[in-house]
Design goal:
By secondary structure, the chain is of the alpha+beta class. It has helices at residues 3-7, 13-22, 33-47, 81-87, 90-100, 185-193, 252-255; strands at residues 24-26, 71-74, 104-115, 128-131, 145-151, 162-165, 200-202, 210-214, 219-221, 230-239, 274-277. It has one domain: Jelly Rolls, CATH 2.60.120. The longest helix has 15 residues, at 33-47.
Length: 278
């Protein structure tokens, strides 16, 4: 398919079946090579502190002392126009809406992620531990959220591709699944599997493709054993009408509801822009 045709892609019944069966679905190419290159340059600007506008990302960022450490920044759309363009893309919103059978998709927050290349060094420094994204988002009243992980280069296990645990979104919320930063993958596997079948499947992506995984799908990634960084832009999205659950768990998005958030308040202001609405 040409990119123009790919951008007009519609979710099929088979796509929905795969997403609901496995907990994730891989898209056709969403962005062209020119946009990929612009987003790679956006990475360079962001990590050097060169921001668009006078704002700041959600959390302050400084380069880690360890050159092998993962770099992660939340809400890059606040500080970079290229990131803003892709994480608020209506086409991405429409694909997510169809996978979730909903009429509106809003941005929950984004992430800009840089996994350094360490070559063949034996290191866990770039690992992302097995986790469920919703384990961090318990302040929202629905786990029906999707993470759209967009590759900015061809991505496979050699450069630290993400792997998912097939069908793990059907396990429900697992206690302690907010384990992104625990880099001991074997320890986490033993902890989270709980006797269930643990089937790892890598998300092999061409540059510009994305994986769409459910908020309860366990996923993680190992080291980048090339000499080039693995770059990605990530849009975490939610159904329109997703609401705040008070007193469950702290998350920075709660502050974006205003000075006195109340239980049941919708995440529907300008900090949570609409990507798609029927």
């Amino acid at each position: 398919m040409s990119l123009q045709a790919e951008r007009a892609y519609k979710i099929t019944a088979n796509d929905k079946e795969v997403f609901h069966r496995d907990g994730y679905w891989i898209s056709p190419k969403l962005i062209d090579d020119d946009q990929i290159e612009r987003l790679r340059k956006a990475h360079e600007r962001i990590w050097s502190g060169d921001y668009d506008g006078d704002g700041l990302p959600m959390n302050p960022f400084r380069l880690p002392d360890n050159p092998h450490a993962l770099r992660k920044l939340d809400n890059g759309w606040w500080i970079n126009d290229e990131v803003r363009g892709v994480v608020t893309d209506p086409f991405i919103g429409e694909l997510a809406a169809d996978l979730l059978d909903t009429d509106e998709i809003r941005l929950w927050h984004d992430q800009v992620i840089y996994k350094p290349g360490v070559g063949l060094n034996v290191s866990q420094d770039g690992n992302v531990g097995w986790h469920q994204d919703y384990g961090y988002w318990l302040c929202s009243n629905s786990s029906d959220m999707i993470t759209v992980w967009i590759a900015l280069q061809d991505t496979d296990l050699t450069n630290g591709a993400m792997s998912t645990i097939l069908g793990s979104h059907k396990w429900g919320l697992i206690q302690g699944s907010d384990s992104f930063f625990n880099q001991n993958m074997e320890e986490l596997k033993e902890k989270h599997a709980g006797g269930r079948d643990w089937v790892e499947e890598p998300c092999i992506l061409k540059a510009g493709q994305a994986s769409f995984h459910h908020g309860l799908t366990f996923h993680g990634s190992g080291p980048n054993q090339t000499l080039n960084p693995r770059l990605s832009i990530v849009a975490h999205v939610m159904k329109g009408g997703t609401r705040y659950r008070a007193g469950i768990q702290r998350h920075d998005n709660i502050r974006l509801l205003g000075p006195r958030p109340v239980d049941g308040q919708a995440f529907d202001n300008d900090y949570f822009p609409v990507l798609f609405q029927r």
